[in-house]
Amino acid sequence: MTDEGTRYEVTEIRVIRGTESRTITNKQQEGWELVTQEKGGLRTTMTFRRPKPKPPWRLWAALGGVGVLLVGIMTVGAILEDDSDASTTDAAAASNTEPSFPQPALEQEADPSSSADPMICDTTGLFKDPCKFGQTAIYSKTVRSGEVKLEITVGEPVEFMLSENAIIAYDLPPGPVSVYFPVTVKNISSELAVISSVHTQATNAEQGEYAGIREVSDGDIDSFAVSAVQGLPVGESLSVKEGWTMATLEGVEYRVSIGGLAGYDVTFTR
Known about the structure:
Blueprint: E1 8-16, H1 20-29, E2 33-39, E3 43-51, H2 57-97, E4 120-121, E5 131-132, E6 136-143, E7 146-154, E8 158-159, E9 167-168, E10 177-187, E11 198-203, E12 214-217, E13 237-246, E14 253-258, E15 264-269
Parallel strand pairs: 4-6, 5-15
Antiparallel strand pairs: 1-3, 2-3, 6-7, 7-10, 8-10, 9-12, 10-13, 11-14, 12-13, 14-15
């Protein structure tokens, strides 16, 4: 009857025959009680049990009291915070009723980059940066008849295979790479595009300008094609594929020069 209501934890141990008594002694010192003992050929299986420790009711009660105390503190804090918010609201309402005097407006400096179109390349200034392929450069010059203004867009070079009808400047052999640059020029001025000269040049990191890079004409791909922009009517566009043959596309660039050596130069690069 003394075992009623007592909960036990049980463990099972297998030991070599002949060491049973020593194992029993050790387990009894730890509080275990031998329940069963089954002897086999080489080993003996023994089952032990011992009462489970009773839960620390006093500790749980203390922890419960601490929890109740914390809830009370949090409730008081919430009430005080509500009172503080109400005081702040009243103060703000009172300040709104006070007469206000006009303050001098602060001048905001306009940030040109905030409204700048990333597809428009800035070509102003003496040491201007090159444009990126796909961007549009604005050429503007005042002449006797008015202002000549052009939008010049150059896309990434496109590789192609030369046909047997391809024409290379100076009848030179083609380079390992043949490409064309898609170029679009639009006349956005109020007059005809009166331009003295237009010159273009493709370069790369290996050859520069004068080491074998040559213009190519092949089907709808033409050489010196951009020069046709001279006399372009107002509001119209010229779209061409200007062909070149070269050794490599490493460091490839494309330059448009308008008006000769002292004129306008813009370079497109990757």
